[in-house]
Amino acid sequence: MSELLDLTAAQTAASLRAGEVSTDELFDHSRARAANDDLGAFLWVAEDAPPPVSAQAPLAGVPLAVKDIFCAEGVPSTSGSRILEGYRPAYTATVVERLAAAGAPMVGKTNMDEFAMGSSNENSAYGPVRNPWDRERVPGGSSGGSAAAVAAGIAPWAIGTDTGGSIRQPASLCGLVGLKPTYGSVSRYGMIAFASSLDQAGPITRDVTDAALLFRHMVGRDPCDSTSLDHPEEIELPQADRLDGLRFGVPPELSGEGIEPGVLTVLKDVLGRVEHLGGTVNETRLPHSPHGLSAYYVLAPAEASANLARYDGVRYGLRAGNGDLLSMYEHTRAEGFGDEVKRRIMLGTYALSSGYYDAYYGRAQRVRTKIVADFASAFESCDFVITPTSPSVAFRIGERTGDPLAMYLSDYCAVPASLAGLPAISIPGGLSEGLPVGIQLVGPAFSENRLLQAAHALEGAIAFPTGPPPT
Amino acid sequence: MIEREQVLHVARLARLLLSDEEVERMREELSGILDHIEKIGELDLDGVDPTSHVIALENVLRPDEPRPSLAREAALSMAPQPGDTGFGVPSPGS
Amino acid sequence: MSSVADRAYEPVIGLEIHVQLSTRTKMFCGCALSFGEEPNTRTCPVCLGHPGTLPVVNAEAVHYGLMIGLALDCELAPRSIFHRKNYFYPDLPKGYQVSQYDIPLAAGGRLGDVRIHRVHLEEDAAKLVHSGASGRIHGAEGSVVDFNRGGTPLVEIVSEPDIRSASEAAEWLRLLRATLRRIGVSDVNMEEGSLRCDANVSIRPAGEATLGTKAELKNMNSFRFIERGIEAEIARQEAIVRAGESVVQETLHFDPASGALTPLRSKEEAHDYRYFPEPDLVPVAPTEAMVGRAREALPELPAARAARFERELGLSSDTARLLSFRGELGDYYEEALGAARADGGADPTALASWVTVELVPRLPDGDPSASRVRPDALARLVSMVGAKRVSGSAAKEVLTAMAEDGGDPEAIVAERGLAMTDSADLGAVVDQALAANAAAVAQYRAGKEKALGAIVGAVMRETKGRADGGAVRELILERLSQ
After folding, report:
1. Distance between CA atoms of residues A92 and A96, nearest Å
2. What is the DSSP string of A391-452?
């Protein structure tokens, strides 16, 4: 049974279809492991088995770990925040509903940085998550619980959300595949908002095939999300094992200064494999990408400052204060939000406030335009942009908590694709210091099929193990 | 370095109560982050349009058809201070 | 040089009107609009601002907004966007109001003599009920929020400061209300809050072009209060300026009971709404089809109708406006006029006067379309008066009967014996009256023309009002000149 959880989700689905295991057995097993998890990956674990799912359903009843940012009716949904402690939504997120309908029942809600603000999962109000590769290290964030759960073999797959790297960076740090889809291709309805123009849900899986399989059942326009739209293509399961004729652009801005040497070594190795598989590698400039982080740290906090204004102690969640209205607001929010959330609310409020809007928010929106244009011109001469996902391997718990700026730099390579709304996938490229290093491929909008095909071919050549890390 | 008064003003706008120690820490941290961010001030962005959305969608509209509302008990069930009929709050100006 | 004390001042007034649209559902969610339902029974996760929820724009609200923009002769924005207006208040569930800011749905229009600055869409706030029976919280004073109204579609209409007196403001607002009612986008009921008006008032030395410091007046929920509030504010500002002081910019609350204007409690910090584009919504870019549909949905507007009534039917300006600004009167009038034309009778002016002066006061709710008097029946009654088949006073009696029980005017006239006395009979009655009032005849002949009234009165008494006063008079003069 335990070997079963070392399989990829697609392999698990095959066992279910073959009748080697029943969906109930599988669910119970996964649930028991989640309940006994000592990584801190779960904030809630399902008590009751879900209604029976046919092994013939597209996802065959393979249990799914769901980041706590997604609302599920009657199930605690806190987005990792104390301000939502005990909150049980009256409705279910579209993505969770679609995946359950396709046969992937929710086994538990995973730990995360509070309101998805963080790159280490240390900003959760419910404690840190440990990286299964090294329990003294972070799993990355903000979807740290989802990544740790999949890496440790507790759940075969998980969904996370990515605003500025929150799927890709933990996938990178945990040796997994993480896909941030094109903005708008997956409904945000029921995903607790961090930065609405950037937030996008996606899969965290053990291999590229699983990512495609899960993503296929996440996409599509949702009448409840005005910014969602139908994917122009059916999502295919990737089969490619060659990269003939494909051009990979390496932006010097995202693959030089500030990147750990061990990470660059893995990148170099992967670029060699690209050529070996018939692809070409060229330098591609993204001249404004070094400013991506600055623009991101204006735009995302600005949107967040408004998105988090609803946590006011009136309709749900925590209430504090001494009986007058102002103190209700100020105490509720002071007690309910953690340091990083407060920092970003302050930053965003400042950037939007009278007299500063043009210098910060207005300029950041224009930098965003430039970054969109940089990618557009890069894709004239290459099919994909390839970079490290994270400048470093998993760092030690506590190592960066005292320095917000150092923490923000974890997203340096991930943020430009977020600002441009482009699909980006992180796949394990190899090890550095015995820890996984993720490689990021970015493609044009709605190029997920081609991105998944290329990632699949590379994955075959890299042959990174899909089972739990060596212990 | 941003001023203490600015930190307090922004905290009030955001309805965040900060302790004296937090105000000082926030002042240092925000100043550090803003210093980094201010590099975008060096870019020549004249004539560049701002981007609010990366998707080219327009007129996403919903038909004017009623959908069931929540039962009142359900709406009030999550409230920190539910009354018989509504959400209790301290009176403004109290 | 004249002193400030005796200088003449000119008020400068602009209005900001909020109109609740009469769509079926809220602006951004599928909750039905509330009409006095039990508190908090028209809510959902979206309009309660629950985590993870998203707004979706109501197509009909956009349609109504476009209709209003066109009715007010505005330019429609090719691409308008929503913004978030950020502030904390218990009636604002998300901590921001979704509104429009720098690119409103429509701008630059005109209604009557007043230019329209802008027209935009937004969502209404909820209702904060202060310490009612259920608002007591552990003995402390508290409030209760009712989110039924929260998210109701609103259109905000802002006029240019083109109004120069309190009465002009009220008159213009009547035209605006009539226009909005006519196009059917709102109940426009001020008492119930579906039409709300704030006024920006300043004064300046007469003849100067610069604007003075303005005060914003809120909570004037009737036409009377608007006039009284603005008058009081003009007087207040004049007194300040004449005393050599200056007006400060502030928001004032009008208390209808006392007529007093009191400054709203100044907020802890200056407003800084931190507007930014709403990332959860995409632009509204009206297509030709959307604009065409809005244009087709517009009926003739009150101002145009009044002009037509004056021009084509020769009605007085006051009557034309009365019939147009109250669309239901105009509709009834035009239906009666159509029936009269088909019959070949009834003078438009006389018919208008019968509708406005006689019929409306006889109806409990003043709405003829809901009365028992059919338009064609009224038209026939007025034709009978014109043809001198019934006297004016008898016709009023007939109308009273019709208002109570309906029926045909001809039948009522016949039943009650109200047909005009014919001329042979009238001659005999006049002869009798002349004989019976010899003294009055003598006085008249002595040059006292007034004496004629007594003789006419005697004839009218004898005929029980069924004679035409003018004809009687003529007949008496004829006899006396023989």
Report:
1. 7
2. SSSPPBTTSSTT-HHHHHGGGTTTHHHHHHT--EEEEEEEEETTEEEEEEEE-STT-HHHHH
pLDDT, one tens digit per residue, over A374-395 is 999 999 999 999 999 999 999 9
Residue of chain B whose alpha carbon sits nearest to that of C278: B52
Q: Say yes or no for a CB contact (<8 Å) between C276 and A323.
A: no
pLDDT of residue C457: 87
From the list C127, C146, C46, C45, the residue with the least C-alpha distance to B84 is C146
How far is the alpha carbon of A283 from chain C, nearest alpha carbon, in Å? Answer: 34
Q: Shortest CB distance from A352 goes to which of C56, C140, C274?
A: C274
* H or E element in which residue C110 lies: strand C106-111
**Measured between beta carbons, which residues in chain B are less than 8 angstroms from residue A346?**
7, 10-11, 14, 16, 26, 30
Residue C228 has phi, psi (to 5 degrees) of -65, -40
Contacts of C333 (CB under 8 A, 6+ apart): C323, C351, C352, C355
Rounded-to-integer distance, Cα A428 and Cα A455, Å: 10
Q: Print burial letters for C204-228: b (CB count within 10 Å at least 16), e (below 16).
A: beeeeeeebebbbbbebbebebbbb
In a domain, A377, yes or no: no
Nearest CA in chain A to C144: A314
Name the closest residue on chain B to residue C23, using Cα atoms.
Answer: B64
Contact A268, A432 (CB under 8 A): no
Angstrom CA distances, B5 to A339, A353, B10, B61, stand at 20, 14, 9, 44
Nearest to C265 among B52, B65, B93 (CB): B93
**Strand pairing category for A64-67 and A157-162:** parallel
Chain centre to alpha carbon of residue C25? 25
Assess if residue A467 is contained within a domain: no
For residues A360 and A390, membership in a common domain is answered with no
The question of whether A196 is a catalytic residue gets the answer no
- 3-state DSSP helix/strand/coil percent for chain C, to nearest 5? 45, 20, 40
ipTM above 0.95, yes or no: yes
Lowest mean pLDDT among A257-271, C145-159, C395-409: C395-409
Domain assignment of residue A431, given as a range: 4-245+386-462
Is-contact A233 A212, C-beta < 8 A? Answer: no
C-alpha distances in angstroms, A78 versus A37, A50, A139, A192, C49? 19, 21, 20, 9, 15
Token pair for A378: 């890069």
pLDDT at A450 > cutoff 90:
yes
Q: Is A323 on the interface with B (CB under 8 A)?
A: yes
Q: Are A139 and A356 in contact (CB under 8 A)?
A: no
Contact by Cβ (8 Å): C197, C15: yes
Contact B80 A368 (CB under 8 A): no
C482 by Cβ neighbours in 10 Å (0-12 / 13-18 / 19+) ranks as exposed
**Domain covering C423-481 assigned CATH 1.10.10.410 in the classification:** yes
* Distance (Å) of CA C409 to CA A357, A434, C403, C467: 72, 104, 11, 17
How far is it, in rounded angstroms, from Cα C127 to Cα C145?
Answer: 6
Cα dist from A294 to A422, B37, B43, whole Å: 18, 5, 12
Concerning whether A142 is annotated as a catalytic residue, the answer is yes
- Name subunits touching C (3+ CB pairs < 8 A): A, B
Structure tokens at C437: 């009032």
Which domain CATH number covers B28? 1.10.20.60
Instruction: Specify the number of domains making up chain A.
Output: 2
Q: Do B18 and A319 touch (CB under 8 A)?
A: no
What is the predicted pLDDT for the residue at C269? 47
Task: Name the neighbours of B, counting chains with at least 3 Cβ pairs within 8 A.
Answer: A, C
CA-based nearest residue to A187, from C51, C54, C277: C54
User: What are the structural domain ranges in chain C?
Assistant: 4-296, 302-416, 423-481
The total number of structural domains in chain B stands at: 1
Q: How far is C30 from chain B (nearest CA, A)?
A: 5
Radius of gyration of chain A (CA): 21
